[in-house]
Amino acid sequence: MADKPKKGLADVVAASTALSDIDGQAGRLFYRGYDIHDLAGRTTFEETAHLLQYGSLPTGEQLAAYGTELVRGRKLGALAEANIPEITEKQAPMEALRTLVSLAAGDDPDKDSNSPEANLRKAARLTAQQPILVARYHAARTGTTIAEPDPELSIAANFLLQITGRTPGEHEVGIFDACLVLHADHTMNASTFAARVCAATLSDMHSAIVAAIGTLKGPLHGGANEQVMRTLESLDPSAVAQSVRDRLAAGEKIMGFGHRVYKTEDPRATHLRKMSQELAEASGDDKYYRMSKEMEEVVFETKGLYPNVDFYAATVYHYLGIPTDLFTPVFSVSRMSGWTAHVIEQHADNRLIRPDSEYIGERDQKWKPIAER
Ligand code: COA
Questions:
Q1: Best of 247, 259, 292 to mutate for ligand 1, by most ligand atoms within 8 A of CB?
Q2: What is the structure's pLDDT at 1?
Q3: How many angstroms is it from 51 CA to the middle of ligand 1?
Q4: Which of 45, 247, 256, 338 gives a 20 to 30 Å CA spacing to 129?
Q5: From the CB of residue 17, how many other CB atoms can be counted at a distance below 10 Å?
Q6: May I ask the CATH class of domain 35-217+325-348?
Q7: What is the pTM of this model?
Q8: Domain residue spans of the chain
Q9: Which ligand 1 atom is the nearest neighbour of the CA of 260?
Q10: pLDDT for 288 beyond 90
Q11: First CA to last CA across the chain, in angstroms?
Q12: Which residue has the CA at smallest separation from atom 36 of ligand 1?
């Protein structure tokens, strides 16, 4: 008989990876051995994606070559392009991305190959296209036309320009770029696990990414950042503490708090809190930052829970002018770098992922013909 399952697979080591590592007790996160405190604000998202997908921080030459590949990869194929208007009309942002990435597989010249070279090319194209898909979705629903992506601009700068319609300042670009770095990979989180399960059947990279996007969408995972903003908007600024206490007393979960692995502050939240404060001060309206701080204090006092990555990411994106329902898509823009790297890693040393289950249903049932049931 199988062992008792660990609900939610807590503490189960499901894969070996050289991509990222968490020290949950100390609150530390590493990408390929680099502490994210050393990467955020110093290494661009493009360098981080290269680190994850290729295994090393790029030299100047490697970065130039990878940058060229990313710029070329921004061009959408005919199938995705043609379907944006109708998909935008019928699907919410994360649903649309799930569909558009699936369509992008049909446009991808490497769609039928799982070779390491093809996977690296697909990883670059998927990383380049995800922000464009989000921007094009937003443009379609707002009836605006966006300029072709500027090849001189980074992924972060181009995204902010395409979403807000104005040239972002250097400080904003730096902050958003660091946000993308902070969200790039996170060990065996639910969406990465979903991607690896799919890839382990020797299915293709786009299928694995579609599984990951569907998994990221849920409010217990990537969907939490949008819910944090909705919570802030729903609270009376003069009664934050009491409302949060009431919600907790009623057994409600407060989105953006708690974590399966971190037993102390999520190291990404440390950066995001600071960014949120800086942007709030620069905007001249720090209401949501102050409310967030108050929420943080009350949730810690009442439940001993720390904010996770999604909590301060919400106000950071809000201050950057990103619409609330695009917060989770932004998460996917960054995590694409990690998901694709995990698919490459899974294919490089594959075994089907097929765990066991504990049977808790009836046994020894006696079959009866339909008339006697
Ligand atoms: N608000 C209130 N209580 C919370 C909480 C939250 N955000 N997160 C956890 N808890 C409580 C649970 O109610 C539970 O209490 P109980 O033991 O009295 O029933 C306990 O802490 C353990 O929570 P559980 O949901 O079992 O932990 P988990 O490891 O399965 O889940 C999360 C981890 C992240 C899913 C969970 O903390 C959560 O739902 N957070 C909110 C959603 C979120 O921000 N997700 C983004 C994660 S990066």
A1: 259
A2: 57
A3: 31
A4: 256
A5: 18
A6: mainly alpha
A7: 0.96
A8: 35-217+325-348, 223-320
A9: 29
A10: yes
A11: 31
A12: 258
